[in-house]
Amino acid sequence: MKKKVIAIVLAIAIVAALVVGLVACNKPAEEKAAFGGFAPIAKANIKIGLITLHDENSTYDKNFIDSLEDARVALGLEKSQIIVASGVPEGDECYQKACELAEAGCNIIFADSFGHEDYMIKAAKQYPNVRFAHATGTQAHTVLLPNFYNAFASIYEGRYLAGVAAGLKLQAMGQINAPKIGYIGAYTYAEVMSGYTSFFLGVRSIVPSVTMEVTFTGSWYDETAERNAANALIQRGCVLISQHADSMGAPSACEAAGVPNVTYNVSTEAACPNTYVAGCRINWAPYYQYLINCTMNGVTQVGFDWVGGFAEESVELLEIGSAAAPGTEEYLEAVALELMSGARNVFDTTTFKVGGKTLTEYLADVDSDAAFAKDTQVVLDGKFVESLYRSAPYFDLEIDGITLLDRQY
Question: What does DSSP assign to residue 20?
Fold first, then answer.
């Protein structure tokens, strides 16, 4: 099958005046501190370290590794200017590895897992002339180190579009009378909750009576647990499965059972041709390129939080699978236009309820202190404004229509 990726170049051109370009941060506040400068570093002297929790067998880590290779090629860097350190646990091993990379001459060091953050901060304090960037983290805008940054993407929009594709599949299957779908998450973190909620809202935009059951594995990468979770959901009557977990466990279980599957990070069209519908991913290459260019040009204020979206090509839809409903690609392109122009919002509070009530206000844990205090009003003009006040998601509400079967913190 010819690979069909959702291309929204036309959409970007149409609404270019309405979206923010490749910037350090999309939140309204200005930088909270003034720093000294970083001297420019010649392209030939750039050296980048990437710390990953697992390796290329994890779809999540593979996405980071592949995106860095894409950025390297785009910028004309040599392979010798990249060091990938895989299988680094979320503990002091991360600090030690970050220090090793700094001592090896890396002037930019990335880490890809939530639990790496404290150890990256520790290393950033020790090596003030090295830039440390952490994906999915929450502390950069409160720690205020000039060489430590967080980055993410508005992937909830990609999840929503993947949900629309799932809804179209249910419709094509004749599953329009209160169908039940399933979702496998790693933990009940806001990142996962934001993802499965936006996916569900996308499905419900097509099939309003749908409900969803969510189960958690307690691990970002556990192929056996993910396969077992998918099988359990199928046995409970779920007619379509999606996941925020990083192995082929769930997709392979869906293929064996003949149950449609919507993926994250990678397409499974080749491995699961009968059940793969669609998917989405964060393309990290734009952020890699942004920070590398800032480093080469001596830009100091790169932003404590960076959020990429469709305009930056940071949010991507994967290929449309053979199992998708006819017309899915064209429908998603139209919805993407609406999201980019603001005509549609993923977390429009008129589209969901919490405990039977419409959400009118909500304090989210944005600043992530030790007590996880709810500190910031995030419902503005009838919308839950995800990723406005920091890059990492903070949507942690349990909305009506979604049942959590268990919890893993």
Answer: -
